[in-house]
């Protein structure tokens, strides 16, 4: 009797599992659960500490190279780091080498600067999309205005207050690359190593393990990995955003997978013994 | 001609993205998302429609990307400029590319071999140094290098370095099929299998997180589109799908009952 | 006839293969120029190759509509989806956003293509979970090792999992993130490296076969 019941449970219609997963992921979106966020990983802490120690007025170059497909993991990272930069009164410059990023960048700068009363041109500047990353990265080592003579709105970059005293990497304090592609490798190889400017990366969860060697050697000062990295950075900046709420959903989703696998194997064992 | 250009500008003006366009876009995105998810319940015409739309839209997107980032700047513009021989040189790959299209005419399809052989030759020539340096030599050097720095490592690091080297060798033994796996060879290749299993388990764990992040992203978008700003797009479309499935189930149940009665 | 149909194409493979291979190992300006030019050529020829696939697809769906085969109505949507991307691209000159905001192409990308492609991938998440429940059977020692590695990784990636680990195994003073880091940098690296080396050897051998004309399948029938 028990054996038949257990076997029926085994062969449960998979649509119930789909519904359970959908509920587990959707509920935290509607009502954030605020599940405890335990440790801050070492690389995220290093990233935060590095930016925190920069003096006010330093120039930080953000390279935001991700498109809507990697948005859930990378967009919260970008927002959290830009918020941190604004909080510390750092000057922010944004470049991109992926055509799909431009819409996402406009989304960020439509809302975030207002919270810190930052003005376009005075506190931050967004440069237009450029297609050839390595050529642009090399050009910026000597004269940034050779490529970015105008910002995205068409204003002359040289006259902008935010660009005062900035001509090349020597005048910048930090490069932050947030991407779902291998663009971070380019920044480390062509810019960080060559011109000795610090680089911090933000990547998807899948790519994160591959950057261990760079962190070990110090070529990367810090790394944010996936939604978890975003959530950790948000908790350090003390502004919870999509990263934190996403982690709640992922918490429950992951636990569901583990519970289901464990249950199915326990049932298998019990059936074998009966 | 001026009149035509004037009308075209007016026509394009209709397509300036306003708030109404954004709301319409939200309905479209929510609808397509829910149609694709509806396959999880049962195959249905809405899913098939969205699937075919995806096929067409994917091809359309790739075409416009290859058109505006390759064909226009690298073929059309140099040919229009024709300043020096560099510009005329693009005729060579263009002709090779056009030769590929003769594939559709069986009598002259042998011309397409010229395009294919160029791609294959370049690709094969490229694969060798790239494969050698990135996947072969640097992997081996990464394994061996820590063993050469033993003086400056902690005991745990030394153990780790030896374990990695041992694991790589065992895995390579597993993949060496020219010699039969028996006796000691089998023990070594079995150990290699365990290392592979750990790698696959780790890869599975990473994949789960990435897929869930994507799914969370879609649910978040659906939740955003369910707000008043987008006129409750998600709710209406979901209710519509539920009603459809209910009616469809009811109608097909009626069809099944007479069959069962017979 | 055989010369231009068979031998000249094979000669092209050989010449370009050897030139590209040599250019990587000969540090001279000519090599660098050659590689730059040939990689541009490859981009262009590849764009035409994409057209090949596109025409093939349209041909098959057009015939489905013409013959009114089963499900021909859906084939119309393939063309609709295609036009929904291509017409905005033409009207916006390939740009997704301008100073005034997103263009029609940007709108199309965000609300049509992106919605469709992200959802297609997201649906896989559901199948991962249902397959994990129904098929992840631990029937051997090796499967058990796979299960343990996957279990630790999934558990450690989320804070709740870390808390569970600490409450059960906290006495070992090893946090789950330390264990994950060790797994990812030692045994998993060994497995990955072995696979990469094996794949690289296979790719190199196949490439040599293609360059020297031993592998001729891609030429099609004689």
Description of the molecule:
The complex is a heterotrimer of chains A (274), B (262) and C (222). Chain A has two domains: 2-31 and 250-273; 42-240, Nucleotide-binding domain of ferredoxin-NADP reductase (FNR) module (Rossmann fold, 3-Layer(aba) Sandwich). Chain A has 274 residues and is α/β, with parallel strands linked by helices. Chain A has helices at residues 2-10, 14-30, 42-52, 71-87, 101-115, 133-139, 183-195, 212-217, 226-237, 242-273, and strands at residues 59-65, 91-96, 124-129, 174-179, 199-203, 222-225. The relative contact order of chain A is 0.17. In chain A, helix 4 packs parallel to helix 9 (226-237). Chain A is built from ten helices and six strands; from the N terminus they run αααβαβαβαβαβαβαα. In chain A, helix 5 links the parallel strand 2 (91-96) and strand 3. Chain B is an all-alpha fold. Chain B has a domain at 83-152. Chain B is 81% helix and 0% strand. In chain B, helix 5 (91-100) packs across helix 6. Chain B is extended and about 75 Å long. Chain B starts with a helix and ends with a helix. Chain C has 222 residues and is an all-alpha fold. Chain C is 80% helix and 2% strand. Chain C has eight helices and two strands, in the order αααββααααα. Chain C has helices at 2-25, 29-67, 72-91, 104-135, 141-156, 159-169, 176-185, 187-211, and strands spanning 97-98, 101-102. In chain C, a hairpin with a 2-residue loop joins strand 1 (97-98) and strand 2 (101-102). Chain C is extended and about 75 Å long. Classes of the chains: A alpha/beta (274), B mainly alpha (262), C mainly alpha (222). Chains in contact: A-B, A-C, B-C. Chain A binds chain B through residues 15, 18, 22, 25-26, 29-30, 69, 71-73, 131, 204-206, 209, 213, 226-227, 242, 246, 249-250, 253-254, 257, and chain B through 40-41, 69, 142, 202, 206-210, 212-217, 219-220, 223.
């Amino acid at each position: 009797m028990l054996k038949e019941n257990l076997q029926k449970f085994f062969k449960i219609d998979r649509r119930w599992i789909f519904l359970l997963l959908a509920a587990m992921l959707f509920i935290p979106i509607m009502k954030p659960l605020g599940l405890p966020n335990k440790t801050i990983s070492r690389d995220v802490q290093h990233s935060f500490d590095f930016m925190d120690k920069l003096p006010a007025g330093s120039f930080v170059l953000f390279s935001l190279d991700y498109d809507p497909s990697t948005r859930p993991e990378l967009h919260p990272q970008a927002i959290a780091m830009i918020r941190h930069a604004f909080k510390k009164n750092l000057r922010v410059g944004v470049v991109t080498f992926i055509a799909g990023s431009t819409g996402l960048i406009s989304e960020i700068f439509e809302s975030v600067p207002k919270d810190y009363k930052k003005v376009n041109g005075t506190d931050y500047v967004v440069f237009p999309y450029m297609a050839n990353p390595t050529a642009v990265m090399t050009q910026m080592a000597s004269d940034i205005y050779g490529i970015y003579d105008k910002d995205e709105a068409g204003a002359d970059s040289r006259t902008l207050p935010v660009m005062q005293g900035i001509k090349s990497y020597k005048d910048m304090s930090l490069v932050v690359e947030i991407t779902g592609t291998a663009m971070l490798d380019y920044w480390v190889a062509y810019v960080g190593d060559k011109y000795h400017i610090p680089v911090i990366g933000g990547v998807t969860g899948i790519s994160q393990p591959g950057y261990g060697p760079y962190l070990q050697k110090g070529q990367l000062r810090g790394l944010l990995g996936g939604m978890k990295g975003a959530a950790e950075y948000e908790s350090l900046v003390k502004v919870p955003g999509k990263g934190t709420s996403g982690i709640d959903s992922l918490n429950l989703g992951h636990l569901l997978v583990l519970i289901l696998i464990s249950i199915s194997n326990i049932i298998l064992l019990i059936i074998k013994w009966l | 001609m001026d009149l035509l250009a004037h009308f075209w500008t007016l026509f394009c003006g209709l397509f300036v993205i306003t708030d109404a366009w954004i709301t319409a876009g939200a309905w479209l995105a929510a609808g397509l998302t829910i149609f694709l998810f509806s396959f999880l319940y049962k195959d249905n015409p809405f899913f098939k429609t969205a699937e075919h739309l995806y096929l067409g839209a994917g091809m359309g997107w790739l075409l416009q990307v290859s058109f505006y980032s390759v064909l226009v700047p690298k073929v059309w513009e140099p040919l229009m400029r024709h300043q020096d021989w560099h510009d005329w040189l693009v005729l060579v790959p263009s002709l090779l590319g056009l030769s590929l299209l003769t594939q559709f005419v069986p009598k002259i399809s042998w011309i397409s071999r010229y395009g294919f052989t160029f791609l294959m030759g370049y690709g094969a020539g490229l694969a060798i140094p790239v494969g050698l340096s990135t996947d072969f030599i640097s992997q081996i050097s990464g394994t061996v290098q820590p063993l050469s720095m033993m003086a400056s490592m902690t005991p745990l690091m030394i153990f780790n370095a030896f374990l990695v080297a041992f694991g790589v060798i065992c895995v390579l033994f597993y993949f060496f099929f020219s010699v039969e796996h028996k006796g000691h060879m089998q023990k070594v290749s079995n150990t290699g299998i365990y290392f592979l299993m750990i790698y696959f388990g780790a890869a599975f764990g990473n994949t789960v997180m990435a897929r869930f992040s994507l799914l969370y992203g879609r649910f978040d978008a659906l939740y955003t589109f369910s707000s008043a700003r987008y006129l409750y797009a998600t709710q209406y479309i979901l209710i519509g799908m539920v009603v459809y499935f209910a009616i469809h189930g009811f109608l097909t149940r009626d069809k099944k009952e007479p069959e069962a009665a017979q | 006839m055989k010369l231009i149909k068979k031998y000249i194409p094979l000669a092209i493979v050989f010449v370009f293969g050897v030139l590209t291979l040599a250019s990587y190992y000969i540090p001279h300006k000519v090599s660098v120029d050659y590689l730059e030019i040939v990689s541009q050529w490859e981009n262009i020829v590849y764009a035409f190759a994409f057209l090949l696939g596109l025409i093939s697809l349209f041909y098959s769906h057009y015939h489905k509509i013409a013959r009114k085969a089963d499900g021909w109505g859906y084939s119309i949507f393939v063309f609709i989806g295609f036009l929904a991307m291509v017409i905005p691209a033409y009207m916006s000159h390939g740009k997704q956003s301008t100073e005034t905001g997103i263009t029609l192409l940007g709108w199309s990308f965000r609300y049509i293509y992106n919605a469709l492609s992200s959802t297609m991938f997201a649906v896989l998440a559901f199948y991962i979970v249902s397959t994990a429940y129904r098929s992840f059977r631990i029937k051997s020692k090796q499967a058990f090792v796979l299960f343990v590695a996957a279990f630790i990784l999934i558990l450690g990636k989320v804070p709740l999992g870390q808390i569970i680990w600490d409450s059960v195994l906290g006495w070992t003073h090893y946090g789950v993130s330390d264990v994950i880091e060790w797994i990812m940098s030692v045994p998993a690296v060994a497995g990955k490296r072995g696979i990469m080396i094996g794949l690289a050897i296979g790719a190199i051998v196949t490439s040599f076969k293609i360059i020297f004309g031993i592998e001729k399948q891609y030429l099609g029938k004689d």
